[in-house]
Amino acid sequence: MKWFAVNCIYQVICGEGKHTPQFNEQTRLIQAEGIAQALDKAKLNAVHFNPPFNNCTGDKVVWKFIGVGGILAVEEPADGVEVSSKIVEPKSVDKYLEKLRHRNKSLTNQNRFDN
User: Fold this and answer.
1) What pLDDT digit, counting tens, does each position of 14-32 carry?
2) Whether 42 contacts 28, CB under 8 Å
């Protein structure tokens, strides 16, 4: 068996879907004999990865599986192995870097994850 990083793409639909379109790209590790089996397994299990729920206003939130956006064989899961990569071309570098600093600060200030 081998490990594969599979990029699963979902459309996030809240209520009747009358909101700004949202898509969620998730990279999931799947164990399989080969690429074909990993793709089949990802597609079969996609509906179970994100079960629907009701948000704080009672609207049903659903992740509609759109498809697989990519797959990468991970030879040996190990510390520091790359499982996902994307190139970003922001309209504003300053805004992008500010958002990144804010996200980093939020992540590093959360002691509850260290338990």
Assistant:
1) 988 888 888 988 899 999 9
2) yes
Count CA atoms closer than 13 A to 35's CA, side-chain side: 6
One-letter amino acid at 71 equals I
What does the alpha-carbon distance between residue 6 and residue 84 come to, in Å, rounded to a whole number?
9
pTM, to two decimals: 0.68
| Cα distance between residue 81 and residue 79, in whole Å | 6
Distances (CA, A) of 94 to 90, 98, 100, 101, 105: 9, 6, 10, 11, 16
Q: What are 14's strand-pairing partners?
A: 61
Distance CA(53)–CA(31), nearest Å, equals 27
